[in-house]
């Protein structure tokens, strides 16, 4: 892999100029009645192989231990996000709570790699997964729900307190708890979050504890 002359590579202080001073952890994003985004996972390709050892030696907020995990971990503080970088050139962006922040973070991570001499080509950004929490604000009879919807759900309270519900459309997974709280994961857009919530709400209401 071709890289720039080491003498011309930016110093650690140059790279850290890409990292803004620490900011408070952003509050979750409310996208509708009872629905709050907790995390987004974005993916991009930089179009070239990455020298993870070199990146780890040059970037202050990074960690690379191939014996435990084959990806390199980088962090920035604004927006507060984490990047998992792989030798293939694929980047996973974790921790953003808004699409704009996720895309902005991906560009900042790509810029750091470019400053290290990697001939990157920013391409293929997309939101791969959105995780949200919501609350129907009433208790749910999980045993009865599982009995009627057994083809879509699994419930083993001795192992995990929530019921796992695999919705077909949209294709998301819901963790439903007896107090009415829900975690939705696997959505790729806000519209899928709303659709999943709108689909499950009347189902849960029919199993409301009196």
Automatic annotation (TrEMBL):
A Pfam family that the UniProt record links to this protein: TBP
Biological-process GO terms, alphabetical: DNA-templated transcription initiation; tRNA transcription by RNA polymerase III
UniProt region (Disordered), positions on chain: 1-27
Keywords for the protein's UniProt record, in alphabetical order: DNA-binding, Nucleus, Transcription
Organism superkingdom: Eukaryota
TM region positions: none
Primary subcellular site in the record, as a coarse category: nucleus
Extent of Polar residues compositional bias: 9-18
Compartmental location: Nucleus
MF terms in GO: RNA polymerase II cis-regulatory region sequence-specific DNA binding; RNA polymerase III cis-regulatory region sequence-specific DNA binding; TFIIA-class transcription factor complex binding
UniProt keyword annotation of Nucleotide-binding present: no
Annotated Gene Ontology cellular component terms: nucleus
Record family assignment: Belongs to the TBP family.
HAMAP family: TATA_bind_prot_arch
Name of the molecule in the record: TATA-box-binding protein-like isoform X1
Record organism: Diaphorina citri
């Amino acid at each position: 892999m071709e890289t720039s002359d080491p003498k011309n590579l930016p110093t650690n202080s140059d790279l850290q100029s890409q990292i803004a001073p620490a900011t408070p952890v952003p509050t979750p994003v409310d996208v509708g009645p009872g629905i709050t985004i907790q995390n987004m996972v974005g993916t991009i390709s930089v179009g070239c192989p990455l020298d993870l050892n070199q990146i780890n030696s040059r970037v202050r907020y990074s960690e690379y231990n191939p014996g435990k995990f084959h990806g390199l971990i980088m962090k920035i503080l604004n927006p507060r996000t984490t990047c998992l970088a792989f030798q293939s050139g694929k980047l996973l962006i974790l921790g953003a709570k808004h699409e704009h922040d996720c895309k902005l973070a991906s560009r900042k991570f790509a810029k750091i790699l470019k400053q290290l001499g990697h001939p990157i080509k920013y391409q293929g950004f997309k939101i791969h997964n959105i995780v949200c929490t919501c609350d129907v604000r009433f208790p749910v009879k999980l045993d009865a729900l599982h009995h009627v919807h057994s083809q879509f759900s699994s419930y083993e309270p001795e192992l995990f307190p929530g019921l796992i519900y695999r919705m077909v459309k949209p294709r998301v997974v819901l963790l439903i708890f007896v107090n009415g709280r829900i975690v939705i994961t696997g959505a790729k857009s806000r519209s899928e979050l709303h659709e999943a919530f709108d689909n499950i709400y009347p189902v849960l209401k029919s199993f409301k504890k009196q």
